[in-house]
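User: Please fill in residues for this 325-position structure.
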């Protein structure tokens, strides 16, 4: 098992090193190491470090959030974006931006993060209640997608009443970007991320038991309801954090845990959480590389790129579950 972790780590380090050294324009690889090129160093510190940092955080957080949801709901098609948690964050951030504009208040990073987390938490609780009544994986998936569509419609109605500056700011944020984070925001993001990850690893034993089913887990001493509430809070925190600073990013939390389970072939969540984080971070850094490669031709929004990569995999998983049903 640790050999597979080593492979994942090597893959992550290799992709990250390529992303760090990838040339900008006509500059050579690792141009920031040239002490005579002050501009390259400033570009590296101001833009590249925050971009790679939030890519790693986003991939790690969304993948772990997806794994927690899939185990808790016993549904391999569950994910923060598919089940509407990201849409809930979307709505709350929209209300925060519009409300701040109307009241003439300045929007703080922590305020947006809290709004995104609350939105994800509300929809996470709603999905949890629905999941107790709907056992069909496909039905739960469809309910989550419909909730997401409903919330998107409400968000669009709110935008119709907003001023031009708020609409522009929200539209840019809504396209998703890994370039909205500054070097000064890294400590706050790191703190919230570490809290979420610490809580996630604290529920590994209950999650291992939940795989057997709710009744066997309860017999083993697991407080099922308490574990579910804790998982929803963790998922909301992690998904809300990423949505607040990157905009809505879909599919990562859905596809990565499934790929990890296929590769690792284990039910031990200590290993699955670590592997999901490493591979999720690798996928997001790979997206950064693809964005830079296509930058001379077009600017690719991160959520559009993850959709292009993830939609075929989601379709495959959906057809597979329908076939096995």
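Assistant: Residues filled in for all 325 positions:
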């Amino acid at each position: 098992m640790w050999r597979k972790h080593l492979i994942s780590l090597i893959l992550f380090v290799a992709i990250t090193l390529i992303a760090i050294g990838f040339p900008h324009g006509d500059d050579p690889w690792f141009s920031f190491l040239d002490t005579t090129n002050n501009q390259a160093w400033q570009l590296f510190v101001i833009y590249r470090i925050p971009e790679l940092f939030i890519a790693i955080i986003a991939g790690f957080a969304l993948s772990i959030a997806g794994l927690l949801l899939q185990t808790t709901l016993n549904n391999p098609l569950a994910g923060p974006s598919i089940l509407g948690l990201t849409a809930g964050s979307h709505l709350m951030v929209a209300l925060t931006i519009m409300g701040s504009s109307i009241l003439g208040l300045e929007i703080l990073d922590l305020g947006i993060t809290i709004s995104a987390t609350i939105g994800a938490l509300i929809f996470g609780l709603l999905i949890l209640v629905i999941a107790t009544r709907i056992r069909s994986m496909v039905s739960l998936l469809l309910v989550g997608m419909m909730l997401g569509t409903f919330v998107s419609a409400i968000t669009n109605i709110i935008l119709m009443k907003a001023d031009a500056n708020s609409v522009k700011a929200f539209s840019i944020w809504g396209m998703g970007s890994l370039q909205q984070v500054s070097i000064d925001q890294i400590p706050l993001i790191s703190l919230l991320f570490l809290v979420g990850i610490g809580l996630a690893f604290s529920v590994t034993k209950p999650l291992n038991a939940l795989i057997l089913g709710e009744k066997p887990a309860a017999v083993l001493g697991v407080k099922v309801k308490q574990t579910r509430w804790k998982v929803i809070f963790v998922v909301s925190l992690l998904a809300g954090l990423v949505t607040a600073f990157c905009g809505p990013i879909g599919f990562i939390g859905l596809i990565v845990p499934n790929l990890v389970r296929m590769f690792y072939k284990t039910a031990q969540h200590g290993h699955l959480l670590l592997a999901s984080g490493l591979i999720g971070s690798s996928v997001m850094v790979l997206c950064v590389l693809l964005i830079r490669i296509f930058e001379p031709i077009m600017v690719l929004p991160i959520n559009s790129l993850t959709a292009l990569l993830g939609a075929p995999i989601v379709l495959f998983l959906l057809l597979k579950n329908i076939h096995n049903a």
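For context: Residues 38-72 form the longest helix (35 residues).
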